[in-house]
Every structure is written in C-alpha cells, then in structure tokens.
C-alpha cells in the first residue's frame, strides 16, 4: 500500500477505537483530541517499517495505533503544562474542559495506549513493551528537560540536541522499530530502522526550528518568529549565542529575556543577528547531516531497495525535499 | 512469612527500585513520594494472595511492587487535582516542586509501574497486563466520578458505592488476583480473591467515611468532621439526605454547601442529624455486610483454612476488629 492508502487505513482504524464510555467527562476529551487530526506519522512509520518485511499488515494495525494514542497523550499533558490555548486550531482539552480533566483523560490514554499492544504475539510482547516503556519514559524526560531549559541560563547545543532527541525523535525511532519487529525483522534490522527514525526525528525538529524563523507564514501555519518572541532556546538561538561577537551579544541580550518588548522589533533584531552569523545555512547543514545519517541506516537494512521506496519517500516528504 | 516479615520484604524491595536518574526534577519527586511510607497494603495483598498457592514468593515480588507504584502515581495526580497541601504529613509533590513536575513525574511512574510486570512468565503476561490496565482505567473513572460528584446536585447511594468501588476497591481486588495468578491459582480461585479484595476495599472506604465523623481524632490522624466541613457527599451524608424529615432537611440545607460557615457548628449540627437518624449503626451494618461478603469469597477459595489465616488476619486488621 502507498502512503495515502496507509493513512486512510490508519484513520479508519482510529475511528473504530473505543476508549471507554462513562463518565463522559473522562472519555469525551480523548475522542476530541484524537479527532483533531494530524498526519498520523507514527503509525504510518510503523506500517511502513513492517511493510519492509511482510505483506500482512493486519496484526500490525492495533500496535501501530498505540504510538498515535501515546503521542496524543503527550500532546494533551504538554499543552496543559505549556498552558497552550490551541491545538491544531481548536481549543486544547484543559481550555475546553478544565486542567483536572486534562490530567485524568491523559492518564487513561496512556493506559489505553498500552492496551493496544496486548495482542502482540507472546514471543515478542515483552520486548515490544520494554522498548515502548523505555521510549515513553524518554519522551517524559525530554519534556522535563524542555521545561528546565526555559529557566536554565546555560544550555549547551549538545544538551538541546539531546532534548529534542528524547522529546520528539525517539518515538519516531520506536514506531519504525515496532513495525520492523512485528514484520518479523531480526533485532539488528529493527535497530537500524530505529536509528533511521531517530535521526529523521531530530532533522525534522531542527527543520521546525528553522521554519519558525525562515518559513513562509502561510505554509508553515504558525506565526513566524514565535520561538524568538517566547525566548525559546532553539538550535538557532543557542548557535547564535555561542558565535556572536560582543556587539551581537549585546543585541541579543537587549532583546532576549526582556519582560516588555515590541514583538516585531524583537524578531527583526534577532533575525538580523542570525543572518549576520549565517545561522540559516549552519542549521540547514546540520539538518542535512542528520538526514544523510538517517539514509545511511536505511541503506543498511537488508531488504530490496524497491521495498524501501515508500519509506524513503516519506522521509523526503517530512523534509519537504524533492530528493 | 507473616505480615510484618512480608511488609519488611516489601519495603526492602521498594528501597532497591530505581526509577531513573536524569533529569532529577523528573525522578526525585518519585523517590520522594515512594519514601513517604504507608502500610504497603496492595503489595502485601499480592504476596498474601500468592502465598495461598505457593511458597516461592521470589517471582511475585516485582509485580507486587507495581501495585504500590501505581497507587502512589494515583496519589500524586489526585493530590494535584484536589489541590491537597499535605500527604502523610509532608508537602505534596505539586507543593514541594510545582504542578508540571507533578503531572510529568506521575506520568513516568505509570510507565514504571507497567515495567515491573514485564518479567511475568509469558503465558500469564497478557492476562496480567489486561487485568491491570482494566483496573487502572477503572481507578481513573472512580476519580473522575468523585470529582463530578463535587458538582452534581443529585448523587444516589448506589452511584456513591460504585464510585468508591472504582476509585479504591478494584485495585485491592486486583492486587489479590495478581498474587493468586502468579502463585499458580486457577482463574476461578483468582476471581474469588479479586471479589474478596474488592468487598474488603468497599468496607474499608465506608469505615473511613465513618471514622471521619465518629473516629477518635488522635488515632484516626485526621481532623474529625473533615468530610462534613468540605461538603463531601459520603455514604453518611447521602443516607441522611435520603432519610431526613422536613425539619432535618432544613438543618442539612442550612449547613451543607454554604460558602461561609463556622466549622465547629457545622460539624455539630450535621452530626446531630446523623445521630437522630442512626446513621452510625446503618453504616456499620453496611460495612459488616461487605465484610461478610468478602469472607464468604475467601471461604470459597479451595486451599486449607490454615493457609488463609494471614489473609484473614489482615482483613480483620484493616477493619480494626478482633474477629
């Protein structure tokens, strides 16, 4: 199946999931956030990972959905922690209901995510659950680092890259590894795919950082410069701070971390420093490095190149590149 | 092993658990809440349940701890939702750290609870995990009903009993069922023990409601009348409201749900209505009914009566009864 057919299958299967009935205040928010949509990248990666090794995706479907339910659980709790008012243009759960509903609905989503694994064949179940649990804990660690970095004055680029690896990339890696394992791949191949997915995930997040500053507002769908306005310590800002001259440091300090400011002027001034330091090209180079490393892992997977085509194409799509 | 030896074993094993290291702001709160103590009833029930059927508790220990880690996860999130300042006389996690730390540390505790099951023999693992997940979701449902009841004007006694069954009792039932399954019991015996534990759990919670009003402040360890002060819809209040004369209704309405009040007068007035309606004896009768039903389930378990002695004794201890 190609990517759009697989995505349809995933959405059809998601629509069939039942999370629970009563009390409605517990289960309605789960149906709400799951219905907000999204690209369903994680279950797609699981199915594409499995398709490398098998043509029978039936037993892979339910576990594939687990990664999507888990991902939406993290969005639900993260939105509460970040006090975000909107998610995909709609009110977040803690806004539409209240914070307590967001906590408890999220908790039960995590339980439901686990449940989607329990039909996995007995021989694979412990491995799959151990890897999922490790990944889930790492995603929590990433979110905690992200919150810590808002307060920490000193954050290194290495720390930042490790944070996005944990918060975003390891789940993409696990989604692929899961598909490979369920498709019957040996552990070594599953691990190559995990590394492919993790590297793609880091590249994807760096690209997100880049688009926040250099993206087209219309296609990016967010306000350009949002990270700059909120003093977010992204790869761009940390690199600029590490490389700035005394004069450039002064400009950055004049704008970053100030309680009162003109947003437009702030974005302009910080972007000007980025431009002087060639931050865009440096970020693109690092994205490319992770992307190439990802492809090298995919290359290592011992199946016919033709079978890798859909996965290769999805990776390119995620980077919005032609080749 | 007797109850005190088992409790020591549980505490020794809990002290050996490692939840994670970095970031410390994620893992320190887990070590903190787990170190606050408690009677470790749930793992104790698991070990006592297993001991009915086996003398080798070694493979039961880790899964037994899962119920304690899960229980403390629910306390951590419930304290945040209830905005409770204290837990076992110490600052709650959201007070000592902050609400976001409480959310995220709790999330990772739920993951760690699952992980403690993964060494369960492959033949039992899916059953154990399905039953645990069902129980975990039910506990969340119970907490949501409890929060709903704070706002709902009409709560029936049946709804209240179902709420405490979900919020408190099913986890005690699962703890026993888990022990029985791991001890090698057939499903029918494990289910008898589940029902025994669930009935004990409901009796235990009703006793807690009773002690809030009629307990000795020194031994109960909480302020007498706390439930009355906070308008908590307990079995006592709901029964009184269902049976009150017009004059007694008026007294209850004069005190319950008022924004401003004298706490001592409120407790006195509501307790006086309880006394007139004989609520204490009615509650004791219901506790006894659940307790007797529990013992009947224990009776049904096909092992020698002598093996049931420690479990029988623990049940009596939980009711603080001699026999």
UniProtKB/TrEMBL annotation, chains A, B:
Record-linked InterPro entries: Isoprenoid_synthase_dom_sf, Polyprenyl_synt, Polyprenyl_synt_CS
What are the alphabetically sorted keywords of the record? Answer: Magnesium, Metal-binding, Transferase
Q: What superkingdom heads the lineage?
A: Bacteria
UniProt-listed Pfam families: polyprenyl_synt
- Alphabetical list of PROSITE patterns matching this protein: POLYPRENYL_SYNTHASE_1, POLYPRENYL_SYNTHASE_2
What the entry lists under CDD domains is as follows:
Trans_IPPS_HT (cd00685)
User: Keyword rRNA processing, does the record have it?
Assistant: no
Q: Which GO terms describe its biological process?
A: isoprenoid biosynthetic process
* GO molecular function list: metal ion binding; prenyltransferase activity
User: What span is annotated as the signal peptide, if there is one?
Assistant: none
Necessary cofactors:
Mg(2+)
Question: Which family would the database say this protein is a member of?
Answer: Belongs to the FPP/GGPP synthase family.
Q: What is this protein called?
A: Polyprenyl synthetase family protein
Which species is listed as the source? Hymenobacter aerilatus
